Amino acid sequence: SQQGEEDPQALSIQEGENATMNCSYKTSINNLQWYRQNSGRGLVHLILIRSNEREKHSGRLRVTLDTSKKSSSLLITASRAADTASYFCATSLGGGSARQLTFGSGTQLTVLP
Amino acid sequence: NAGVTQTPKFQVLKTGQSMTLQCAQDMNHNSMYWYRQDPGMGLRLIYYSASEGTTDKGEVPNGYNVSRLNKREFSLRLESAAPSQTSVYFCASKWWSSGWNEQFFGPGTRLTVL
């Protein structure tokens, strides 16, 4: 079963606008990560936020985490056509070295030029 | 560095045929993973290997076997392919670290079972 669920499933915006995607999860987590997948490619790690952090920035990305609501959001500012991709949240639950990740079903972002 | 590589990129099988998907990483990572991705489902973990010599089942292991051949290579085998195994398969790897567990993904293998 999916631990994380992204919302919306699809998002279409104009270049230059901000894009916000949300992720909700069900159980307590160790950390939450966001990944991007371009069409026909593998996933690329974007950012990791630990359970004791509330906000994190990386370039044009801003991630928030609300553990009381079991939710996270990914904000992409000043979007570009190259940001068109699917975005997935992934949660890390267990301990140990393997630290399995559980992925949500993704948000398909389309940035129109 | 090539990162994570997977072969083949595409494969078509008939029901009942067998095949092995190959994965290799050159980043000296300890942990390796096999996922499948179906439309609208995100990624689901099939098997993983925390370190060389160990393998464990993930969320959807039925119909698959794995081999951690050495630290670099982790293969996924379908002994008797079924149409339900039509999917895109991704291999991933990560450092063996207590704090940082970013996974690095290969480009995927698109498998169709007729």
What does this structure look like?
With 113 residues, chain A is mostly beta strands. Helices cover 0% and strands 57% of the residues of chain A. Chain A contains no helices and eleven strands. In chain A, strands 2, 4, 5, 9, 10 and 11 form a six-stranded mixed beta sheet that branches. Chain A has a five-stranded antiparallel beta sheet with strand order 1-3-8-7-6, with no helix packed on it. Chain A is globular, with a radius of gyration of 14 Å. Chain B is mainly beta and 114 residues long. In chain B, strands 2, 4, 5, 6, 9, 10 and 11 form a seven-stranded mixed beta sheet that branches. In chain B, a hairpin with a 6-residue loop joins strand 5 (43-49) and strand 6. Chain B is globular, with a radius of gyration of 13 Å. Chain A binds chain B through residues 1-2, 4, 31, 33, 40-45, 48, 88, 92, 96-106, and chain B through 4, 30-31, 33, 35, 40-45, 48-51, 56, 58-59, 90, 92, 94, 96-98, 100-108.
Q: Topology of this structure?
A:
The complex is a heterodimer of chains A (113) and B (114).
Chain A (H helix, E strand, L loop, with lengths): L3 E4 L2 E5 L4 E7 L5 E7 L5 E8 L4 E4 L2 E6 L4 E6 L8 E8 L8 E3 L3 E6 L1
Parallel strand pairs in A: 2-11
Antiparallel strand pairs in A: 1-3, 3-8, 4-5, 4-9, 6-7, 7-8, 9-10, 9-11
Chain B lengths: L3 E4 L2 E4 L5 E7 L5 E7 L5 E7 L6 E2 L6 E5 L5 E5 L8 E8 L9 E2 L3 E5 L1
Parallel strand pairs in B: 2-11
Antiparallel strand pairs in B: 1-3, 3-8, 4-5, 4-9, 5-6, 7-8, 9-10, 9-11
Short description:
The complex is a heterodimer of chains A (113) and B (114). Chain A is mainly beta and 113 residues long. Chain A has strands at residues 4-7, 10-14, 19-25, 31-37, 43-50, 55-58, 61-66, 71-76, 85-92, 101-103, 107-112.
**Total DSSP E strands of chain A:** 11
Tell me the structural class of chain A.
mainly beta
Backbone shape of chain A? globular
Sketch the major β-sheet of chain A: 6 strands, mixed
What is the makeup of the main sheet of chain B?
7 strands, mixed
Largest interface: A-B, 25 and 33 residues
- The structure class of chain B reads mainly beta
* Oligomeric grouping of the chains: heterodimer
